[in-house]
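Example record

Each entry pairs one chain with its bound ligand, magnesium ion.
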Amino acid sequence: MLLSIIVPCFNEQESLPAFYRETTAVLRGMDCTYELLFVNDGSTDGTLELLRGLAEEDENVTYLSLSRNFGKESAMYAGFCNTRGDYIAVMDADLQDPPSLLPEMLQQLESGEYDCVATRREDREGEPPVRSFFARLFYRIMNRISDADIMDGARDFRLMRRDMTEAIVEMSEYNRFSKGIFGWVGFRTCWLPYKNIERVAGETKWSFWKLFKYSIDGIVNFSQVPLSIASMGGLVLTLISFLMILFIIVRKLLFGDPVLGWPSMACIVVFIGGLQLFCMGVIGQYIAKTYLETKRRPHYIVSETNGKDVQKIR
Ligand code: UDP
Ligand code: MG
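Structure tokens for the complex follow.
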């Protein structure tokens, strides 16, 4: 039985040594063969040199180095496509995903009751309140409007059977939103809550704006509800305007036509104009996704690796 750990790394030179040390210590104690599959996502610091060094010293270390920064989603996909394990885990390089949970996760899987053990943070300590608020809002909206069922506070840290990984690799969409993909493929998932941990070193790569765009991606990738809202909104407004026209005609017939109310008219014109632009924007989001999907660009390009039989472009 082979346990594969996929670790996407982007500028992680500060936290990598600690990650390697702690994770290896846990894995050695686990009485199974393992492979650490690092994916260097176009780091501009010493991450790649560190990985080369680790691979030299430790035969359990494999690394894939991408030709530029493709983003965590693509880095994870590269990992999924090139793993050989029977059980596969994804872990961040910053030790926010405690390796000490691995034995328990493996035990859960081996009991045969589950196909996947996923972790979620039970609190959002150490996070700015604004960020927590929007995160919660996102999960609430997302679960209402899509059938990818997403757990609030779910992390990407999870251990799964090969079957599930294969299903994930088959979902080869270009715009990837892993939390949604994990939920969409289904399988029996066991949730393991744990207390939020700050990263050991370095900085988070997620600004508020990046997270906001990512959440829009999530919604557009897994729900058509915004399109329905746009068209329903259009329908309702058209009906209202019919009623208004009727009202104006009746008033004209009864009271003549004094020129009144042009400021409110201007407001209405601006309002409708704004709404139309917004709805076009919503439609545009979907068209843009379709455009990118139809190009069928590769998800990642590997420029350097110590692994054998690596799919270098996919
Ligand atoms: N990461 C990556 N490519 C990126 C951004 C991040 O591979 O473009 C990796 C990063 O090295 C880390 C993981 O994804 O291992 C999670 O990143 P981070 O800790 O910045 O996110 P957070 O934990 O704050 O959500
Ligand atoms: Mg982190």
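Residues 8-10, 12, 41, 69, 71-72, 75, 92-94, 96, 199, 204-206 surround uridine-5'-diphosphate (ligand 1) (CB under 6 Å).
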